[in-house]
Design goal:
Growth Hormone, Chain: A, mainly alpha, 19 helices, about 0% strand, 2 domains
Length: about 475
């Protein structure tokens, strides 16, 4: 750290630019993150062909996606401890290699059960890739540059959900279902080589980081049960079935037990005392709400275009492209503003923009104006960028450097549960609307009113965030 002439620490950064070394680290971790993001979206369009290839029913084939997502949720709580114990570089190389091995095994699977088992292996690697991406960048960038770095990295992350289904369709039609997994090989191999050569190592003290076995035994199953229960609610369009209520109740019970343990433990797997920082508390609440406001429409919008409008998957991806374009264009600007103005005004503006981009879908006629809807999606994309990046940056703003690994773990657990909750809530609301008024666009218009309400809820939460950016030592 730079010092003043009197020997005291100078808390102001000497260089606020995104220097080449930081951009190099961002590029290296981004290459690995792209593989995990791409895999999630590409596989969604292949379930029908996988069922035909293995002569398996839908109830079996859906576990190709479900097992992957649950394996990801299971290992997220371990991220912070692994980084403290082994260092971020070694952990990154290990999980990327595990993801690559799982991808190759999936590509040579001979049956539905073998594919599901190999997807678990793949998910165990993928679960830590995205948290590690955030963690490595948070450490390298520091509080004063984190918003811009995350915005830079998020551009391809927001385009992949558009590109993924299109690429998946091309691979399925032109080659074979096996290539939706093997396509990860030419991405992961250079990512591993670059990380091995250029990713800086961080010193660790292996004797200071004992594993919180009881915490893991409580927290990982809690996250697993909650994500599974909420996924079942989305599939069955009800929170009242045993398949939903039982795992959610178990998850909440385990989460309560973990909270009691973590507040007493000397070195818990994640430290709940981070909630004493105001910006972290506000960011956590925002990330849960964005599950409904941002992730819910990711389910609702494709269903509207495919079921109410009769579009195929390829056309739906093209129609939804303005939302990804709006996000990609806005992210670099939002990143700079987040570092300069602080998160509160940006999140408030993003909530209003997201609301404005959602309102036209509440007034859907039988013959909607597609130009207006495309412009609305562009607005929604801009609003999502203005909410997501500042809310995430705020989580790290007041934290000491040593708290970043555990904070990253907690942020990703909250994001996973918030996204699952948002998708489940929208699926239940939509099904209830369809039951009352089957056919047509009116059930979707009614459900989009809920989206407007969720977006407006972000406004009072924005007031809890810090008003101005404050550089921490």
């Amino acid at each position: 750290m730079p010092t003043k002439s009197d020997g005291s620490a100078d808390t102001q950064p000497t260089n606020d630019r995104l220097d080449p070394a930081l951009l190099r680290i961002a590029g290296i971790v981004l290459l690995g993150a792209v593989a995990a993001l791409l895999d999630t979206t590409v596989v969604t369009v292949a379930l029908d062909q996988l069922g035909e290839a293995f002569s398996a029913p839908v109830s079996t084939v859906q576990w190709v996606s479900t097992a992957y997502l649950l394996a990801m949720a299971l290992v997220i709580p371990l991220t912070g401890w692994c980084v403290d114990r082994f260092g971020s570089r070694r952990t990154w190389l290990a999980v990327l290699a595990l993801f690559l091995a799982g991808s190759v095994l999936c590509g040579v699977a001979w049956s539905a059960p073998s594919l599901i088992a190999f997807r678990v292996v793949q998910g165990l690697g993928a679960g830590m890739i995205l948290p590690l991406t955030q963690l490595i960048l948070a450490r390298a960038a520091g509080a004063q540059r984190f918003g811009r770095v995350m915005a830079l990295v998020a551009v391809p992350g927001n385009l992949i959900p558009i590109v993924g289904p299109v690429l998946g369709g091309l691979l399925l039609d032109g080659v074979s279902w096996r290539w939706i997994f093997l396509i990860n090989v030419p991405v992961c191999v250079p990512a591993l080589m670059l990380a091995w050569r250029a990713l800086p190592a961080d010193p660790v003290d292996s004797g200071r980081h004992p594993l919180d076995v009881l915490g893991i035994a409580l927290l990982s199953p809690a996250v697993l049960a909650l994500v599974y229960g909420l996924a079942q609610a989305g599939e069955q369009s009800s929170f009242l079935t045993a398949d939903t209520a039982v795992p959610v109740a178990i998850g909440l019970g385990l989460l309560a037990a973990f909270s009691a343990h973590a507040l007493r433990a000397k070195a818990p797997i994640i430290d709940l005392r981070l909630f004493r920082f105001r910006s972290f508390r506000a960011s956590a609440v925002l990330m849960v709400l964005t599950g409904a406001a941002l992730y819910g429409p990711m389910l609702l919008l494709p269903l509207y275009y495919q079921q109410a409008r009769g579009f195929d998957a390829f056309t739906t991806g093209l129609v939804l492209a303005p939302q990804g374009i709006g996000t990609a264009v806005a992210l670099p600007i939002v990143g700079r503003l987040a570092d300069r103005l602080g998160p509160r005004p940006l999140v408030a503006a993003g909530a209003l923009i997201t609301t404005a981009g959602t309102l036209p879908y509440t007034l859907l006629p039988n013959d909607p104006n597609d130009i207006i809807l495309s412009a609305s999606l562009l607005l929604r994309g801009i609003g999502m960028a203005a909410v997501g990046i500042p809310a995430m940056a705020a989580a790290y703003q007041q934290l000491p450097h040593t708290a970043i690994p555990q904070a990253t773990t907690m942020v990703n657990v909250i994001q996973r549960i918030g996204a699952s909750l948002g998708i489940a809530v929208i699926a239940v609301i939509l099904q209830q609307q369809v039951n009352h008024d089957p056919g047509g666009v009116h059930p979707y218009a009614s459900t989009f009113w809920w989206m407007v309400g969720f977006a407006l809820l972000l406004l009072p939460c924005a007031s809890l965030l810090p008003a101005r950016k404050r550089i921490q030592p």
